Amino acid sequence: MARPLTVIGLMSGTSLDGVDAAVLRTDGVQVQEHGPSLSLSYEPALRQRARALLDRAASLSGDDPELRAIERAITLRHVEAVQSLRKQVGAVDLIGFHGQTIHHAPARHRTWQIGDAALLSHETNLPVVHDFRTADVEAGGEGAPLAPWYHAALLHDARRPVAVLNIGGVANVTFIGQDGQIVACDTGPGNALLDDWAFRHTGMACDLNGALARAGVVNRAVLEQLMAAPYFSRPAPKSLDRLTFIKALEAVSGCSAPDGAATLTAFTVAAIACTRLPEKPATWFVCGGGRHNPALMEGLRLTLEAPVETVENLGWNGDALEAECFAFLAVRALKALPLSAPGITGAPDFRSGGRLTCAGLSPIPTWIRPGGLDA
Ligand SMILES: Nc1ncnc2c1ncn2[C@@H]1O[C@H](COP(=O)(O)OP(=O)(O)OP(=O)(O)O)[C@@H](O)[C@H]1O
Ligand SMILES: CC(=O)N[C@H]1[C@@H]2OC[C@@H](O2)[C@@H](O)[C@@H]1O[C@H](C)C(=O)O
């Protein structure tokens, strides 16, 4: 077996709440060791600027000054996360840097994650693998979700069929059948619409502990209207932009703040429940920030007709999983192992992806050269 690397994975998710960072020791096939993790939030003002940027992202040029300023601020927060983890673990070989998705349109072969990999490499003196999704969408894939590679590596001895459900800004599922078949897709909204609604009505960044939703009543007519979107009858693979269902906020605009929150929470749950899977999972294991929302978890338990647990019951850390995932995928990218597969992202064949930046390194270490990792 090739030497495992100590990698810091970094994820800035669609909730725009901050950077999740985690250390993983891995050879890109198996996980040798889980290290420490942390989350660094963005200042509310930066979060709001990033949120406003998403509304313009489809027509934005790469040299837009506001985009560049946000990209730099976000990257420097990632630098802080890396330096803080390094104090805890010592030597690190590599960074897997997802960046912040500001636009995702796989039908137009476009996906855009901002983040200055060269600056990150320069500030940390570490090699950085980034831009994980472009090769896949250019080949005709969905570009997301990529987490199934990591979930499958961790789930090797779990009871099947099993589902891992990530409820971030957008929600996505990885299903593994009894025969090992993987089905994965974005299910629909996660917390993003609810975050926007809560911010509009309470000034809070999210519906903390589901308090607003729990005080409200689901508007069934609106929910039915939302669930009529063609996305929900499409089979996997399929993926979403954070803004795909943004019109849901207009649909609930006539509701009181609690009823709107209850309806948006029910929308996330209904979208998950209607996802077409080949078999009913024996258990749904939930990760991502949504598992901290009791209204969401309660809705899932009532609707899914199967046990719903958090990934902590598998011994995983549900707040660090995506960051760990991009540490894992960074090593896969470096070894030219697949990040795309027809059954996962819908790419026409198995192919690798990601790009390597060594802007901060001179000389470049020998292990990073082609074939060096397996030597
Ligand atoms: N106690 C809580 N009550 C309600 N919601 C919560 C709570 N804690 C976290 N959340 C929700 O979780 C979100 C953050 O989740 P997470 O960190 O998984 O998102 P992300 O990494 O941005 O998402 P993605 O998977 O889309 O990349 C917050 O924006 C909030 O909506
Ligand atoms: C384009 C993009 O950034 N997609 C994210 C987002 O956040 C959740 C969901 O939508 C998922 O598809 C993906 O992230 C995870 C890590 C993935 O690729 O598996």
From TrEMBL:
Question: What EC number is given for this enzyme?
Answer: 2.7.1.170
Catalytic class of the enzyme:
transferase
Alphabetized GO MF terms: kinase activity
Give the pathway: Amino-sugar metabolism; 1,6-anhydro-N-acetylmuramate degradation; Cell wall biogenesis; peptidoglycan recycling
Binding positions for ATP? G13, T14, S15, L16, D17, G18, V19, D20
- Annotated Pfam families: AnmK
Q: Which residues cross the membrane?
A: none
- Name the catalysed reactions: 1,6-anhydro-N-acetyl-beta-muramate + ATP + H2O = N-acetyl-D-muramate 6-phosphate + ADP + H(+)
UniProt keywords, alphabetically: ATP-binding, Carbohydrate metabolism, Kinase, Nucleotide-binding, Transferase
Q: Which HAMAP family match?
A: AnhMurNAc_kinase
Q: Which family does it belong to?
A: Belongs to the anhydro-N-acetylmuramic acid kinase family.
- What does the function comment of this entry state? Catalyzes the specific phosphorylation of 1,6-anhydro-N-acetylmuramic acid (anhMurNAc) with the simultaneous cleavage of the 1,6-anhydro ring, generating MurNAc-6-P. Is required for the utilization of anhMurNAc either imported from the medium or derived from its own cell wall murein, and thus plays a role in cell wall recycling.
Q: What is this protein called?
A: Anhydro-N-acetylmuramic acid kinase
Which organism encodes this protein? Answer: Acetobacter conturbans
Q: Which gene encodes it?
A: anmK
